[in-house]
Amino acid sequence: MFGQSAQQNAGFVTLPAMEGITSPFAKAIDLYKQVSTSTSPLATDALRMSALMNSGNAYYYKHDYGGALETWRTAISFSGHPNLSPWSNVIAALVLLDRPQEAIKEGEAARVWAEQSGKALIETYPYAGVLEAMAFAKMQLGDSDGALADMATANALRDDALTQQNFALALIVSKRYEDAQEVLRKIAPPLDAQAIPDSKIARCVYLIWALATPNGSPSVRAANFAAFLGEHRSAQELSSTTSEGLRQLMRQVADTLPKSDYPCGSLGKIKAITSLLSAP
Q: For residue 177, what is the DSSP state?
């Protein structure tokens, strides 16, 4: 958490402090490694497993996906049998490393094991994570139908706000905009030029709303894009948004997305998503 806070506040610190901005993550990784490799009787298997998972998370937030991949791979069979939680993370790391074919192969292996062992019905949350990560890999390869099928299954199993967002994205990539809007309304309504963003709603939701309304008015799309960026624009400014103004805003969003807080920022690695921001 400390490492994430330092990263998110990078814009408010001086240049000398910026040079050491990754040090909280490095320190966390070192501490987690001490726990995960400890031979102390106080370091239970559960505690060492947790340290491995959190070490992988620290690499992830540090944007060191190779380090995250290696650490999560170690965690998969740490307890002597496969564990779906790190397995789903391994698939996600492969997607972020732009290795979608490997991600799908890994995902299929996890899916088959989960279904044959019965874990798919018992550990539905991490199993849904496997399907979601595999869906993004399929998006990378242009298999929108396969991605949608995996996301729909994951959403049926988990049906939380994050899974709903991912499901909506899969529907958008498949050009099923009305269905995507129906899913998004379970989280929050879209903004218009008069509405004020709800601080309790993740900004990514407003980004997805803008993508789900490709034929919407420039002012409505601009309101949602601006909310994602955290920009305050007056109703008059939004209402007067031109097509060119919207294109400029979309270019700004495309530039900002990869730098955004995770998990939304990871969408900047998905070509099927970033291509939606290529204004005509």
A: H
Residue tagged 């496969």 (tokens) = 82
- DSSP class of residue 176 equals -
Task: Say which residues have a Cβ less than 8 Å from residue 12's Cβ, sequence separation at least 6.
Answer: none
Contact status, residue 59 vs residue 75, Cβ threshold 8 Å? no
List, in sequence order, the alpha helices (H) in 186-259: 203-211, 218-229, 235-239, 243-256
Structure tokens at 249: 């805003």
CA neighbor of 269 nearest in space, from 105, 140, 146: 140
8 Å CB contact between 268 and 228: no
Cβ atoms of 273 and 141 closer than 8 Å? no
The reply to whether omega before 190 is within 30° of 0 (cis) is: no
What is the sign of the dihedral through the CA atoms of 251, 139, 173 and 223?
negative
Beta-carbon contacts of 7 under 8 Å, excluding residues fewer than 6 positions away, are: 21, 25, 61
Enter the tokens of residue 191.
């903004």
Q: Which two tokens stand for residue 254?
A: 């495309």
Q: What is the pTM of this model?
A: 0.86
Say how far apart CA 164 and CA 169 lie, in whole Å.
Answer: 9
Distance CA 108, CA 102 (A): 10
**Per-residue model confidence as pLDDT tens digits over 215-268:** 999 999 999 999 999 998 999 999 999 999 999 999 999 999 999 988 899 999
